[in-house]
Write a structure and sequence with these properties.
Layout (H helix, E strand, L loop, with lengths): L5 H14 L5 E9 L2 H10 L10 H6 L5 E2 L5 E2 L18 E9 L2
Antiparallel strand pairs: 1-4, 2-4, 3-4
Length: 104
């Protein structure tokens, strides 16, 4: 479960990126639930902390200022370095998005 609101997650990743040397790679993976009913059940059952169900756009925004490596932000099971045509469609209602970004 994602425990940080989008703005805070973006700040955390920016902090790591600031400390990284130019040319460094940062890897992200973030759970996502596309089914509203399933998300409501998961959010109710998860009591360890606040849970966030970030959109694909929010997750991509966490890497602001960094260059996404192909195939970009896709379901983690489909990520293969250098592939330009990796399937981007979610494999089901709950999945993990993954990507690799380079600091310029």
């Amino acid at each position: 479960m994602n425990q940080f609101p989008a703005g805070q997650a973006r700040e955390i990743i920016a902090g790591y990126a600031d400390l990284a040397a130019p040319g460094s790679l940062l890897v992200i993976s973030c759970g996502r639930v596309g089914d509203a009913r399933m998300w409501a059940q998961l959010a109710e059952a998860f009591t360890a902390a606040d849970a966030c169900n970030h959109t694909r756009e929010e997750i991509a925004g966490f890497l602001g200022g960094l260059e996404l490596a192909p195939p970009g932000l896709v379901p983690a099971q489909n990520w293969r370095g250098g592939w330009h045509d990796a399937p981007a469609a979610p494999p089901g209602p709950a999945y993990v998005l993954g990507g690799v970004a380079r600091k310029g």
